[in-house]
What does this fold into?
Amino acid sequence: MPALQPPSGSEPPKLPDEITVFERGWLSSNSILIDSPEASALIDSGYVLHSKQTLELIEDALEGDNLDVLVNTHLHSDHCGGNAALQHAYPGMSTFIPPGLAQHVTTWDPYALTFAPTGQTCPPFGFDAVLVPDTEIRLGGMQWQIHAAPGHDPHSVILFEPKSGVLISADALWERGFGVVFPELEGADAFEAVGKTIDLIESLQPKIIIPGHGAAFTGVAQSIAVARERLASFVANPDKHIKYASKVLLKFRLLEVQSVKLATLIAWAQATPYFVMIFKAHFAGQDFAEWVTALVQDLIKSGAASQDGLIVRNA
It folds into this structure.
């Protein structure tokens, strides 16, 4: 899921020649292309609204060659929404996903996959194999370690290439934090898993991190310190995380529709199971419309949204 703050804007570090990062803001995750004479692979495919752009970027980068492999670090809609379009464009491509939700992909259950509960869209796709943690996979002529990275998503994986020191961290670690800890919204204890995943990343000693959102970065120790500080604040005050997560879900909706009447946004939230679940568990003493309106006002104060009369706009 996207963060509320924009990318840092700093110049990305020098990556191996085989690696190209398509960074497209916060509605779509980063898509990482690894291309070599041996094979080509794409890690994460972005959100469905950007599928046409994803295809154009891949076609341009590969100069007409086929895409051989598609890998998903986890199955949130902003990371796998372009899968179906890529599978249609490259029918010979192999798709790898983390194992945790594989059965729900096979039967295509948008509720179990959290697309319907979060009010997001992901066209059905298939897969050929799963990414087994503590094994390796060869992508674009490079050998990558697969590591389980629960926390943000219980089934997420991260990919590490020790020769170059490049880590594809998905939403387990950003330059200034990490993704919403979704199991916590569902009543599960997952902050400890976030901490263990941060410890794992530190133990790998990566030189360059390509996060799920934002530019690649090298200040790994500083980013880990920021993430631990942020985690500690959420552990000390879980309601802070709940409120943050609620605003992220609203911001994602604004990124998708760009502008919407406030009443329509409130109605969308009322029809979105995740919002109802959060409200009933943590804010039931409030009026639902007033609660959503207060979240919108927080987004406006932070510069993440603007309002013109009854219209709320993405900013």
About this structure: The CA atoms of residues 300 and 306 lie 5 Å apart. The chain has a mean pLDDT of 94.
